[in-house]
Design a protein that fits this description.
It is a single-pass type I membrane protein. One of its GO terms (cellular component) is membrane. Keywords: Glycoprotein, Membrane, Receptor, Signal, Transmembrane, Transmembrane helix. Helices cover 30% and strands 27% of the residues. By secondary structure, it is α+β, with helices and mostly antiparallel strands. The protein has four domains: 248 residues, no CATH class; 31 residues; 195 residues, Rossmann fold; 64 residues, no CATH class. Strands 5-9-8-11-12-13-14-17 form an eight-stranded antiparallel β-sheet, with helices on one face. A five-stranded antiparallel β-sheet has the order 1-4-10-7-6, with no helix packed on it. Strands 21-20-22-23-24 form a five-stranded parallel β-sheet, sandwiched between helices. Strand 2 and strand 3 form a beta hairpin. Helix 6 crosses helix 7, helix 8 runs antiparallel to helix 16 and helix 12 packs across helix 20. The longest helix has 23 residues. The radius of gyration is 36 Å and the shape is globular.
Length: 676
């Protein structure tokens, strides 16, 4: 393995040679450049032991910007095409530099990591400033030194050259951190390769230095709180792929359980339109945005929390708290359409041309085709606008882990392909300290649509049984159904004429293909609510979510492979565990006494009302005003005979052993009323 470490000003060579085994020999070279700021590291493995003896001067790393610029002008095209993904991989990270003396403040360096996979003899790095609100950013605002030395502005440039690339075993690696970053500045970093004559281009930015680095935050405030409430990442965008845009971020090792949300806005003229918001998995470090139209976009990367907002309006700016976020601007110069979509468009165009030719040369065949089409007429696909982001709250029961994973797969499809923000307990409560009930009430009220997914576990809950809790949050199914019934009752009383529209627009029932349709009770199917069989009717579900008629099929490109795999896993799990539902049900408590002791209401024997003379005697004895002599005996006895009704029954218990029992009684009463 060959290591080369270097810095700006001074060079020294140290060569070490190791013989590790009779049939495997490799060499390791160290080139150190002493500098507190800049350092590059190259790691290469020679092909065999003979070649390792002759590669002492194989690598040259150039730190001089002018020499790098001249070499790139000779070897590279002015605007080279983009490299394929398998040629090289580029990632970025931040390096926090703390001061080692007085009168110094911390700052952040950009670390560039490159993996070269194919024969490439020269790699060029060039940093270009795009925008910088901070006037102290020398890369963007201070170019006097460049004009004084070279007579023109040359953006910082570095390059690595291999004199004998055919002796190198691929891949090899290059790490370089020297470019200093300023808060909110946007940079374009180009990585160019020769002799392949291709390039990679990225947009890079960071938020406040105290947000991107907990180390710098502790430098300014040693006692301050550190966590995802105060952190947002370094972000970069890869614009070099043909069919998608990659939005990536630097993961923070100390916040491994933090989920990042990506909100994308499109800027047209002076206004911005929210396109979508997607919350990434904990292990994900990037978001793939497919089928992107040309335009100007802004992406916000932030930790989504309930106690803050991404954007505050002018009316709520006094009481609104902004979430720490990283904002990155980028421009997509041409449409990035996936291969499947391109083939679909090309196929449609080809069919159109062939159809036109048939109409020109064979009118009779065209008429016959027209008549056949009329006979076999189908409802045409309706183009439904998905430009507006909508929200849906999905409520389900945790029947088993495969079932919950299937619901999560469905939610991800709606987020990625249907322009829908999904409120799901698995996404927001597993790693959150938010109170579950508060979260439920907030999301239920905020969601434009609420979908209840029925299953065998939901049927058990409706029968008054309970499931063993396996998640770090309780079941919300019975609560959600109670709230739906409450809204139904209010609408029947207040606005019976608008019941059909309001109920069908906001609420929907669904069941998965591995569950029978009977999991939805007949009493509930009589409500004016749409019912979807998933994933078969997911296109109709998307239409309903975007306030279109649910019987309209939407022509949207959706990758259903993950959802179908999740459905197959549920079917396989149930086949191997035929008693899975019985294992999930809570057993009744044994050897326990009653939860409360019923007691009779204290009884007191009846007592006759005092006569008028007795009342006067008592008043005189106690020095009180005597009673009104005009009060009639009939009035007194009429008051004595008033009968008051007790609420409830002596058999009722004053306490409940389960928080959901009252909800289940409410549901059972509603279902019984529907049957009657």
């Amino acid at each position: 393995m060959l290591h080369i470490n270097s810095a700006k000003k001074r060079t020294s060579f140290r060569i070490k040679y190791f013989l590790t085994a009779p049939f495997y020999i490799y060499s390791m070279f160290f080139v150190d450049y002493t500098s507190a700021e800049c350092r590059e590291e190259i790691k290469v493995l020679p092909r065999n032991s003979y070649e390792s003896k002759i590669i002492r001067n194989l690598y040259i790393f150039e730190n001089d910007t002018q020499k790098c610029d001249e070499a790139q002008s000779m070897l590279m095209l002015s605007r080279a095409p983009f490299c394929d993904s398998h040629d090289l991989n580029v990632t970025f990270s931040s390096v926090a530099v703390l001061p080692n003396g007085t009168n110094m403040l911390p700052y952040v360096l950009l670390n560039v990591s490159i993996r070269v996979n194919s024969p490439i003899s020269s790699v060029f790095l060039r940093l270009e400033c795009l925008e910088a609100p901070n006037l102290e950013d020398d890369y963007c605002h201070n170019h006097e030194e460049q004009y004084r030395r070279w007579g023109r502005m040359i953006w910082p440039c570095r390059f690595l050259t291999l004199s004998k690339p055919d002796l190198v075993s691929y891949p090899y690696f290059l790490n370089y951190h020297c470019f200093r970053l300023s808060s909110y500045s946007h940079y374009r970093l180009n990585v160019s390769c020769a002799p392949n004559l291709c390039r990679k281009s990225f947009i890079v930015t960071i938020p406040e230095e105290t947000q991107v680095s907990p180390t710098i935050s502790r430098f300014y405030d040693k006692d301050g709180a550190i966590g995802d409430n105060y952190w947002s990442p370094l972000a970069f965008v890869d614009l070099t792929l043909r069919d998608k845009v990659i939005i990536r971020y630097e993961r923070q090792p100390s916040l491994i359980a933090t989920r990042i949300s990506v909100a994308v806005f499109e800027t047209i003229a002076s206004s911005s339109t929210h396109l979508f918001t997607n919350t990434l998995d904990i292990t994900a470090a990037e978001y793939e945005w497919k089928n992107v139209r040309a335009g100007n976009f802004t992406a916000y990367l932030y930790v989504s929390r309930l106690d803050c907002n991404l954007i505050c309006s002018n009316s709520t700016v006094d009481r609104c708290i902004l979430c720490p976020s990283t904002r990155i601007h980028f421009t997509v110069e041409e449409d990035k359409i996936s291969l499947a979509a391109s083939i679909h468009g090309l196929l449609f165009h080809r069919i159109y041309v062939i159809g036109a030719a048939v109409l020109c040369f064979a009118f009779a065949i065209a008429v016959l085709f027209f008549l056949t089409t009329r006979r076999l007429h189908r409802v045409p696909l309706q183009e439904v606008s998905l430009s507006q982001r909508t929200t849906v709250f999905i409520v389900y029961t945790d029947d088993c882990k495969p079932h919950s994973d299937c619901i999560a797969a469905l939610a991800k499809i709606l987020q990625h392909d249907a322009n829908v923000d999904v409120f799901l307990d698995q996404f927001e409560l597993k790693y959150s300290e938010t109170l579950p009930l508060r979260w439920f009430i907030s999301k239920f009220a905020a969601a434009s649509h609420v979908m209840l997914i029925f299953s065998e576990g939901a049927g058990a809950i409706l029968r008054g049984e309970s499931l063993i809790q396996q998640q770090p949050f309780p079941e919300f199914f019975s609560v959600a159904l109670n709230m739906l019934i409450t809204e139904h009752s209010k609408d029947v009383t207040r606005q019976p004429g608008k019941l059909l529209t309001e109920m069908s627009l906001r609420f929907a029932f669904a069941y998965m293909t591995y569950s029978p349709s009977s999991v939805i009770p007949e009493e509930l199917t009589s409500l004016p609510i749409n019912i979807f069989k998933l994933p078969e009717q997911i296109q109709n579900l998307i239409s309903w979510l975007h306030n279109q008629p649910s019987d309209i099929y939407v022509d949207v490109c959706i990758d259903m492979s993950h959802l179908k795999s999740a459905v197959d896993e549920v079917v396989e799990y149930r086949r191997k565990n035929p008693v899975w539902l019985a294992e999930r049900l809570q057993t009744s408590r044994k050897n326990s006494g009653p939860f409360c002791t019923l007691q009779n209401v204290p009884f007191q024997s009846s007592r006759s009302v005092l006569t008028h003379e007795e009342q006067v005697h008592i008043a005189e004895t106690l020095n009180l005003e005597p009673p009104d002599i005009h009060t009639s005996t009939e009035e007194i006895f009429s008051e004595e005979n008033v009968i008051f009704a007790l609420i409830g029954s002596p058999d009722d218990s004053s306490s409940d052993t389960d928080d959901s029992i009252s909800d289940k009684i409410h549901l059972q009463q509603f279902l019984a009323a529907k049957q009657n």
